Request: fold
Amino acid sequence: MPIAEFGRRGLLAGGGALAASGIIRPPEARAERQLNLVLESEVVILDPYVTTAAITRTFGFHVFDTLFAMDGQGRIQPQMAEGHSVSADRLTWGITLRPGLTFHDGQPVTAADVVASLERWMPRDALGRMLLDARESLTAKDARSIELRLKRPFPLMLEVLGKPNAPVPVILPERIARTPGDQRITEIIGSGPFRFRPDLWRPGNAMVLEKFAGYVPRTEAPDFLSGGKRVQVDSLMLRVLPDQATAATALIAGEIDYQQYVPFDWIPRLERARDVRLLSLGGLHQFQGNFRLNHSFPPFDDPAVRRVLWKLVDQSTVLQAIGIPERFRAPQCPSFWMCDAPYSTDAGAEGARLAVEAAKAELARTSYRGQPVVFLQVSSSISQTAAQVLVQNMKQAGFTVDEQVMDWGTVLARRGRREGWSIFSVYSNGVDMLTPLTHFYIASTCADYPGWSCDDRIPRLTRAFADAESQEDRKRIAAEIQGIAYELVPNVMWGQFTIPAAYRTSLRGLMQSSFPIFWNVEKT
Reply:
């Protein structure tokens, strides 16, 4: 799921945040070795398998652990796994767990827990279903050994088991993983570096994740989601504040230590603030903005009408209108799979450039006859600003546009229906858009994701991508898929950019990542 939306302008400024210091910093938040954090939104769903929400993923990576994990270069490394083996015919994989792994309830992590967890996860994830289709059997050979037999070779095994995309294949205790598939888990027990404290959870106010003393980190240096996860603090306090400006004010005053998303119009003030620093990243750690089109509802049920939009979006103009400083923007990016990333390509993008008069002439040759384009927009968000830029160009080209402004939760509800909307604007973590197998609008099929974009060629090519033996073959297939996507128009990109995080200089060892990561962080 794309990340939660936040507004450009907050409601409070100056000392307003500190006037409510009891709200910002409850008594249990005052331990010296506690990090006080404001993340993108409140953690509401705790079951790591039932949602693609980024905030649940952040929660999950701290509380749970995975067999394999991605490093900062996009490579998959062993995590809970001590090692793995593959048979000569590539049909049998053996995975051995590291010794000493323990769940938060004190029970050892066993191969049976891994088998039950993967059996629960696979049907719930697009890549997991690919693995499920290729699987012959999945068994625990002994306490630390897992054997996975395949019907056919599956070259992306490590990429699937170590994927950072939600739902992440985290490992649960077997008794919890056996919860019926139509129910959410209610007991949150992982084996990650932090443990969830349900007794200290105050929905709407705060959540506490406590250092797990029984966690055994890897010996390697930390590298994005891989390597040694050494916890240097006693706990994390995840705070819920009214808006991003309140959080920024609290950060400047030292009431919180870290803010995941900084409002762009607060950047100059934060840069001037004593003991505050901004974290800005590029490449796969940036975000991709998109207009998602509804292929099942007029007028975008006509592909010719959809293709007109490629001539109505200029990414530089959109990002400038939002107010994103130039140093936080990528150049015009034609790649569905992000620019400055492993599968970057300009395939199919030849006609995708701003040309309003040409768009007007092209629209006149389609079936479009003035039907209203119902444009869902999130109030006071950066994606609403992006939408308003497109709306202006659409009207000049001859579209009738019905702008409907609402909160993000209402957009989520509205977009789940096949009728009543035409387009919405959103942005997502770049890590989720890196390949045809994880990109929200490409990996989904006709029935999988709101918008219902459908082309018989893409599922065949995504399967070929998954089965490809080399990176060169995958790059070639990714470019072929993108060429089809430019014809299909499941989405139109409105820009690649960084939303900087901000933190107090008292933090040391903060990971350079768009995912909030708090192992290895010290507070001085």
Summary: The first helix runs from residue 21 to 24. Residues 6-30 have pLDDT under 50 and may be disordered. The longest strand covers residues 287-293.
